[in-house]
Structure formats: C-alpha cells, structure tokens
UniProtKB/TrEMBL annotation:
Species name: Roseinatronobacter bogoriensis subsp. barguzinensis
KW Transcription regulation (keyword) present: yes
GO terms for MF: DNA binding; DNA-binding transcription factor activity
Family matches, as Pfam families: HTH_1, LysR_substrate
Protein name, per record: LysR family transcriptional regulator
SUPFAM superfamilies: Periplasmic binding protein-like II (SSF53850), Winged helix' DNA-binding domain (SSF46785)
Swiss-Prot/TrEMBL keywords: DNA-binding, Transcription, Transcription regulation
GO CC, any one term: cytosol
Tree of life domain: Bacteria
Family: Belongs to the LysR transcriptional regulatory family.
Domain HTH lysR-type, residue spans: 1-60
C-alpha cells in the first residue's frame, strides 16, 4: 500500500499539533482539505487513524508509525524552505572567488575573514590566477567573481568590472637599503642591484619591462623569481634586491617597517584593481554581499593608501 508523501506530511502535522484546524493553519491549507486527506487514508487502511472521542486528537498505533515517516518529510520540507530563504537573503551558501595572488594575500583574504564574522554560514572557496585564467573560470561558472587588475577597455566580452582601487606601482626594497640613504636617485642606480621578478603571467612582469625600457636598458640581474607574496617580502628583507610591487601591497605591510618604497618615479600602468563578474549571469546573493563588502572596505582604504603614498618624498 503506497501513500503520497504530502498525505503523510499532513498526518504528521495533525499528530504533532493535536488538531486538524491547527495543522491546516501550520501547513497553509484549508481545514476541509486536511480532513479529506485523513478520511481517504482511513478508508484505504480500513481502520481509524485517531481514537474516537479524544481531545486533543490521539493517534492510533498505525497512525503514529505513518506520522513518523511524514515527520521526516515535513522536516525536509522545512529545511528546504529555510535553505531557499537563506540563499535569497544571501546569508547562506558557497561563494567561489579567485584573484591575482599578491592582492588576494595582501587584502582579500583578511576581508573574507571579516565578512564571515557577520555571515558565518557562507562558505568561501578562494583560488588564485591571472586575468585570462580568472575570466575563463568565470565564464564556465567555476568562479562567481574575481579580483584582478584590468584596464577599463579590457572589461568586455560580457564581463562587468567594478573598480576598487586605481593602479599604482612602486619600486620596493628593504628598510635599510643603501639607495634609501641617497637624497636623489638616478634611474641608472637601479641597475646596481639584483632584482626579484614577479610571477609568470603577472601584469607586474610587463610593468617591469616597461620600467626597464624607460631607463634605456633591456636586461637586469635577476636573483629570484616566481615566489608568493610572503616569499618575495621575506627575500626582500634579507637582501639588497629590488622589485616592482603595487603600492597598496606595501601599504598593507606598512606596520612591519621592514619593506619600504624607493622614491623613484616610474611609468604607471593604465589599469585599476577591480571586481569582475559576468553580466546577466546567475544571481548569487551571497556573492553579491561579499562583493559589496570588498567594495566598501576599499572605499574606506583608498584615502589611507593615498595618504601613505603622499608621505613618500619622490625623487628624480
């Protein structure tokens, strides 16, 4: 004998609250509709579901067994409704975010932690990549959004780009670097020291070549390459090497006092750091909340980063 799941759920509701009217109200149904369900079930069973004359309604042994199965269905339905409501409110779910390594390590991972203190039921899956890989991952729904530097003219092919920070590169060195003791700097001074090159595929690598062209050279002494942000900073602190980094990354580690900006004017990239996602893509409310959080945090940071930049006495 087979019973429909919705009928078992209705029986479970009646057993749970002890009355047909109360159960109908809980289920959002009419009292006659629930009464018909119980009557039809009794006809199929050939025996009553409730002991006659008892108030509140007292289920028979078979009714208790059937109601136990219906309760599982009710609970699953309740959880499904809660899941839908949480998803729509953006308070629960999984957000897949990717980004260029240096910015993810310097800023975004901390912002994700701050975000999750307010939304502990949102899981965030973070990955790394450069712009082409990140765009490909968003197109194939492997990522919901990405943080990367991009020229505004690149934000096409169905992507939306939200700027969060203007691009600004600097030459970085350790706090006790010999060049910091000079009052003025000649770009040729940069050739006296070894260099750390950015990760392959990073826009910073192209920026380094632009810097070299601006001082009329094509090669420098490469001492170290391909490291993570932490490894680059650790290496920088122990040597007289130089490297090109976004100014905001130096700002993020300003309290350590171990890495400084070398006050040399260099060519600047025509791009900004921003959040990208697909235009008209699937709506992920939790991803939108995380995106808004990151955007707001950078609004608060922009004037502090600019103040830090203005504190550097730029040489020639």
């Amino acid at each position: 004998m087979k019973f429909e799941e919705r009928h078992l759920a209705q029986l479970a509701a009646v057993v749970d609250v002890g009355g047909v009217t109360e159960a109908a109200s809980m289920l959002g149904m009419s009292q006659p509709a629930v009464s018909r369900t119980l009557s039809n079930m009794e006809k199929r069973l050939g025996e009553p579901l409730f002991i006659p004359g008892r108030r509140p309604l007292t289920p028979t042994p078979i009714a208790r067994q059937l109601a136990a199965h219906g309760k599982v269905i009710l609970e699953a339905s309740r959880k499904a409704s809660q899941a839908v409501q949480s998803f729509q409110r953006g308070t629960k779910g999984v957000v897949k975010i990717g980004g260029v390594p240096f910015f993810m390590d310097a800023f975004i991972s901390r912002m994700i932690g701050e975000f999750q203190t307010g939304f502990p039921d949102i899981r965030v899956d973070q990955s790394y990549g450069n712009v082409p890989e990140l765009q490909a991952a968003i197109r194939t729904n492997q990522l919901d959004l990405a943080i990367c530097p991009m020229a505004l003219m690149q934000a096409d092919d169905g992507f939306e780009f939200i700027e969060i920070l203007p691009g600004r590169n600097v030459i970085a060195c350790r706090a006790g670097h010999p060049l910091l003791r000079r009052r003025r700097h000649n770009p040729k001074d940069l050739l006296q020291f070894p260099w750390i090159t950015p990760l392959p595929g990073s826009p910073l690598l192209a920026d380094l070549h632009t810097i070299l062209l601006s001082i009329g050279v094509s090669e420098i002494a490469i001492r170290y390459s391909g490291g993570s942000l932490l490894s680059v900073l650790n290496y920088l602190e122990e040597t007289d090497a130089l490297t090109v980094l976004p100014h905001s990354v130096i700002f993020a580690f300003r309290h350590s006092g171990k890495v400084r900006v070398l006050p040399v004017q260099i060519p600047q990239p025509a791009r900004s750091l921003g959040i990208i996602h697909m235009k008209g893509g699937p709506s992920i409310p939790a991803a939108a909340k995380l995106s808004d959080h990151i955007h707001t945090k950078f609004k608060d940071l922009r004037h502090l980063i600019l103040r830090h930049e203005n504190s550097v006495v730029w040489g020639g």
